[in-house]
Specification:
Length: 125
């Protein structure tokens, strides 16, 4: 019996943040139409989330649509609780991540809405 040493290939460890970056959507590549009333009704009927009827609709629109909204949330002194106190800077990253989740959710339902309301193609033989 001869003894052979088995060489094993070392698998490269994948870096977790690279995998996450591939799966997540790139920032500000959203195509949903915030002004489409039919889509907003569809979104509410499917998710139960009412969009466009907030206390401060201009601020809600800015936070949903504008690419500068994340920077504003990080730095603004006008970002306050309902009681008027300024939100501490430590807790602002949570608001930014929730905004990103909401925008991704809107985009997901926008894609489904567009797919369902797409005109059917007629096959000709």
């Amino acid at each position: 019996m001869s003894k052979r040493q088995i060489k094993r290939r070392d698998r490269q460890m994948t870096i977790p943040h690279r995998q996450i970056a591939r799966r997540s959507k790139p920032d500000w590549k959203y195509t949903f139409n915030y002004d489409d009333e039919k889509f907003l009704k569809y979104f509410r009927s499917r998710t139960g989330i009412q969009v466009g009827k907030e206390e401060k609709p201009d601020l809600a629109r800015f936070l949903t649509i504008s690419p500068k909204s994340d920077h504003w949330l990080r730095t603004s002194k006008n970002f306050k609780y309902l009681n008027g106190k300024m939100v501490p800077f430590e807790y602002r990253e949570d608001s930014i991540s929730m905004n990103k989740v909401f925008r991704n959710y809107l985009q997901k339902w926008w894609d489904i809405y567009k797919k369902e309301n797409q005109p059917r193609k007629i096959r000709r033989r």
